[in-house]
Design brief:
With about 280 residues, the protein is mainly alpha-helical. The chain has helices spanning about 1-5, 15-30, 35-60, 70-85, 90-100, 105-125, 130-135, 145-150, 155, 170-180, 200-210, 265-275; strands at about 165, 185-190, 195-200, 245-250, 260-265. It contains twelve helices and five strands.
């Protein structure tokens, strides 16, 4: 009988008639060859409606305030279908809450959707939409797989600063002598605005040939500026800077002008060879 299944009072015959009409309509829809999601949604909502009354009583007896409305739990069953079948657990949560207007079922819908999503992932790792695209001969990127990928960041290849660091107020002669003594190929110049400039030994030699020794090193720099990098940036973001800058300073976001380390092309390639 439908009365104990839906747990309706005897006076609400109109609701039982409406339920019967909906079952008949979904059956006709299925026989007509339309989308198979319609009978699936009916079956899930029907099962949720049947099990809602004893479940809500059990939770309520343990001090958890749970709504016992059958219609609300029927919507929970439809939300579970979306979470497990279409892999959209959060979308179905908001959909059920907005359609029902009953926020007392937020705990059951979150728990049910989470379980449905985890069970679906364990039984079928590949999503239904990805299977459909593969059947059509398409190979589209999966957002689900991209979210699970852990990409490398600049902090993974960061190295301590081992090159000469100078101030923009230092003289050209002093920086040239110190760089030649260290046999380094580049140095880092801190400018007056707390930015850093990676100056190569070739640039320093060319500037020394045209400027006086007491010229400030800041006046000998090229017009372009070294791009600032931060540890949380993707590691591949630094690759296209190396043809111009063989050495890149990595700065601290919380402290302006503070060096966290440096990065070279060899450091990046070495980190990619090691892998994630």
């Amino acid at each position: 009988m439908l009365y104990p299944a839906f747990d309706l009072p005897p006076g609400k015959r109109a609701e039982r008639i409406l339920a019967l009409k909906r079952i008949a309509r979904e059956r006709l829809t299925e026989c007509a060859g339309s989308s198979p999601a319609a009978p699936l949604k009916l079956a899930s909502s029907f099962h949720a409606g049947i099990s809602s009354h004893p479940s809500s009583r059990c939770l309520s007896s343990n001090g958890i305030p749970i709504s016992s409305t059958v219609g609300a739990y029927s919507l929970v069953g439809m939300g579970v279908l979306f979470a497990g079948f279409l892999r959209v657990p959060l979308t179905s949560v908001f959909m059920v809450l907005e359609v029902s207007g009953n926020y007392s079922i937020i705990l059951p819908i979150i728990l049910a959707n989470t379980l449905a999503f985890l069970i679906s992932r364990s039984l079928q790792p590949v999503g239904i939409f990805e299977i459909f695209t593969q059947q059509d001969g398409l190979d589209l990127p999966s957002m689900e797989e991209q979210r699970e990928e852990s990409g490398l960041h600049i902090e993974d290849a960061l190295q301590p600063v081992t090159v000469l660091t100078a101030l923009g107020a230092d003289t050209l002669d002093a920086v040239s002598r110190t760089l030649s003594e260290s046999h380094a190929t580049a140095c880092l110049i801190r400018l007056s605005d707390d930015a850093w400039y990676a100056m190569t030994a070739a640039e320093l030699t060319a500037a020394s040939a045209t400027l006086t020794p007491d010229t400030l090193i800041q006046r000998a720099l090229q017009p372009d500026r070294t791009p600032p990098l931060f540890p949380d940036m993707p590691l591949d973001h630094a690759l296209h800077f190396f043809p111009r800058w063989p050495l890149l300073p990595v700065l601290n976001r919380a402290s302006c002008g503070t060096l966290e380390g440096m990065l070279t092309l060899d450091d990046v390639l070495r980190r990619y060879r090691v892998g994630e």
